[in-house]
Every structure is written in structure tokens, then in C-alpha cells.
Known about the structure:
Layout: H1 3-22, H2 32-42, H3 56-65, H4 72-75, H5 77-111, H6 114-120, H7 126-145, H8 151-164, H9 172-219
Amino acid sequence: MTPRYARWCAVLVIVLAATVRLWDLGGRSFSALEVARINAAEQLTISPESTDNFDPFPLWLTHLMLRYGYREGVVRLPAALAGAAALGAMWLLGKQLLGWEGALYVTLLLAASPLHIQLSRLVGPDPWLVLAMLAGILALWHALRGWDAVRPWLAVGVAGCLACVCGYAGLLLPVIVAAAILIAAERQRRCSIRRSGGALSVARLAGGGSTGPCQCSAGR
């Protein structure tokens, strides 16, 4: 599969999947869990401590959307947009790790996931958590490829903060970042040791070859 063909197929998949997540958001009434989150969001201005039992960022976002009306399509819109954005993040991450064709397949898997479609059409933190995790891993990949680059590390920090305020599962992203940094540092240390050892061996060989004739001439 050529990169151009895979790219256009991925664009088609993302557009169709985003349409599925955004289409007719107000077709169903709020579930019991959504009502509980909305009630907590309505109480934010009265008792901010209500965020203790919910996810802070999605809850405040729901509180903001309630200003535009208590309608299903309006309140569910941020989660649907986050679910659609996660498809693009999956495509970019897959392209870096698996190539063009592999990126198309993993994007197709996420686009056709019934669980992701359902969560993207409900009021909740899960689509934002998925988006933050994918964006954080993508930024970490770019950051590890260039240690001196500042922007990828800033993106890793922003994605990590977003993941942490979207649920307890978001704490996995800082753990992944720390583990990846430690592994990369250890690999870099071993490579430097091997390079220095190889350079020392070459220097010894070169020194031995140069001193041989001198010793022979001195003996004669």
C-alpha cells in the first residue's frame, strides 16, 4: 500500500468515524450517570468540593457547556469532539511506530470500536483520557528522538497534566513517561560505554602496531 493511498484512506476513516460520534448526539436522553455528573457540575459554583468524587476537567467543561442550555447535544459535544480528535492522534502515533499501512489499521480499529463510540457520545472523562494518553505517548516519542528539543517535552507535560485531571487512570501516563526516560537513559549509557570501549580498543591496536617497528629497530 502506497503512503498516498493509506493517507487518503485514513482521512476517509477519520471523517466517517467522527461523523458517527457527532451525529444525533441529542437523540437519547441523559443516562443516570450523566445526570449525576451534570448535577455535580451545576453545584460547582456553590460547592467546589463536589469535584472530589468526579473528574475535575470534564466536570468543569460540563459546567461551561450547561451555560448554553440543558440539552443532550450541547452537553455531550465536548466528549464527541475529544473522541474524534483521538482518531487523529492514533493515526499520527501509528504512523510513527508502525508506518503508513499500520497506522491505517490501528486507526480503523479505534474508529470501529463500539466502546469508544459509546463513550464518545456520553458525558464523561473517558474520551479526554484516551486523547491525552495518545497525545502524550506521541509527544514522548518525538521527545526521546531529540533530547534537546523543548517543544516535545512541553507537549508531554501538557498531555500528562490533562490525563491526570481526567481520572485516576491518567496517572499511568506519568508512569509511562518516567519508565521510558529511564530505559532511554540506560540504553544511551550502554551505547556510550560500548563506543568508548571500542575507541579504546582501536587506540590500543593502533598503538601496538606503531610501537612494533620501533622496538625491532632499537633491538637491531
